[in-house]
Prior knowledge:
alpha+beta; four-stranded antiparallel sheet; single chain
Amino acid sequence: MTHPALIRRDHLTAALRLAADGLPVLPLRKGKVPFANCPACLYTSCGGRPHMKTPGPCTCLAPCHGWAAATTDPRIIGSTAWRRAWREAAGVAYHPGGAGLTVVDLDNADAIAWARDTLPATRTVTTTRGEHWLYKGVMQSANAVRPGVDIKSLMQYARWLGYGTGTMAALPAAVRALTVKDPSPTHGAPQPLPVPLSGQRGECPHRTPTYLDRGIAMAVQSITGAREAVHATVYRTFLAVLSTHGRCGCLTENHTARLFAAAQAKGETARHCTDAWTNARTTLGL
């Protein structure tokens, strides 16, 4: 039987190796959950980290605040405060979004069968109950997007269970669409524009579909690069997208999901995103 101390030392070794590969890591305690906050950070008495949208160490230098503690800094991972956690650790986790990844967590055989029929093949990691499918790209995280399927990317952690097998594919629209819910009468995801507006019907006036894709990519980059006035930046970006593409009927839920995910990664709530989208449409008479 392997001595527990050796297992714990293996966790630290694995964490340092993953950090060197660019994966922000954190220790997991029994039950596959992060360690509780230290006394100074208990109940976010230190000022809290829920507002954090990127991984980084807490000022107390302990692995506090769950996924937000994930780091690639070997000095922090091997520090005295973290070594206390590693002595009790039951596993290693990482922040997929911080590494530019999305994990589709498939919890049972039915979920795996659905993924094989629906999603493009990618790197696969076997879990205790199912599989993790890893894609290049980030998006908002969400639980129970369909039976037995969770999405782990931004502001979430995933348990490290090995490098897996297969070549990692780009994050497909089919995965992004899983987090787009049917809008309620007041709030929710924005509705797509299924038909041309303002009398424009038939062929899209844009040169190629690439023109729209490039526009969405530039809009996402604009939101992601905002360092201040994020809410105003999101509104102006939505306004620009709709003014250019809002009347031809080409915008879909996949496009708006990408915009919403970028805004939420900067701290906007789903409600703020919907309000900004609705206000932009109203301003443009859409």
